[in-house]
Every structure is written in C-alpha cells, then in structure tokens.
Write a structure and sequence with these properties.
With 201 residues, the chain is mainly α. 79% of the residues lie in helices and 2% in strands. The chain has one domain (9-199): Arp2/3 complex 21 kDa subunit ARPC3 (Orthogonal Bundle). It has helices at 9-29, 43-52, 55-72, 76-79, 83-108, 113-139, 141-150, 156-178, 180-199, and strands at residues 33-34, 37-38. It is elongated.
Amino acid sequence: MTTYTPPSTQKLTLLAILTAIVVVLQFLGAFVRFGPFSVSLVLMPIVIGAALIGRLAGGWLGLLFGVVVLASGDANAFLMINPVGTVVVVMLKGILAGLAAGCVYKLLSGISKTVGAVAAAVVCPIVNTGVFIIGSYVFFLPTLTEWGMAAGFTSVAAFIFIGLISANFLFELGLNVLLSPAIVRLIQYGQDRFSDRKTGS
C-alpha cells in the first residue's frame, strides 16, 4: 500500500511562485499575437513545475493557464459560439499539457534528467495544441468551416493548421526548444536545493 507523502514546504513555496509567474506571463502574452490568438509564454514554468513538483503540479499550473486565458478575453471569439465547449477545450488543453509534461519527465528522467526535461518541454506545447485541434473538430467544426471558406482555404484542416495555429505553435515549440538548456539547469538547480534541504546542508 502506497503511503501519501505531502509536498514539502519548499515545493509548496515553489508552486506558489510558479502560480504567480503563470498568471503574469499569460496576461503579458495576451499582447503578443501571431494570427488570431496570443502566444502562450507560460509553458516553460508549467514544465518546470511538472518536473520539480510532479505531474499534479503541472496539471494545476495548466488549469490556471486555462483560467487566465478565459479571464483575459483571448477565447472570446469561441465563447460567443459555444461557451461550454470553449471552457472545456481551454481548461482541458492546459491541464493535459501540464500532466503530460510531468508524466514524460518522470518516465524519461530515470534515463537522463536532461532528456526528460527536453522531452517534457517539447511535449507540453504539442499536447496543448493537439487538444485544441481535437476540441475544434468536436465543438466548432461548422463555424471553422465557414471561417475557412471566407478566408479562402479549401479545407477546414488547412484553415486550422495554417490559418489558426501554425505560427503560434511553431513559436511556442521553438521557444521551449530554445529555452530547453535553461529549463534543464533550473530543474537541476531546484532538485539540488530540495536535496540540500533534506540533508540539512
């Protein structure tokens, strides 16, 4: 039987700091746009939290990411079409991105912490965008078909991939890959600090 171990004070403090960072970065990101949506600058702290504290922390930070997206008005165009579908997609993509980053890190960090951190940094934007694509087909297909035809696209898939998400996804993925060395160092530093506290040094 597995015994539940509560998170340490240091980890709770780190989670509080990362929570604040996610809120600030997402509101700042609302002013940076490639196409109809703002870019997500919060994926790096989500990955760090997921790796250092665990996948549930990644899920929490992803959930908060979704809340701020809704609060900032970045999803208003979709809210007017299908409010329930919008909330489901926005919240789910953030939560699953954080959970996936934590799971990937835990799975691969046993082989190499560097590999685990880089893989988590790559998986996070892929899951975030992938859930958005699936949600678009489930909840918004007729509207997106109309938008795509009006924009001159021959298919709704082309409109979603090229007209809606391509620039944002490439920016977010590229940023995480570019910052992967920094993410690795921050994760290693955090783990060393936790280890030092446990040993009393």
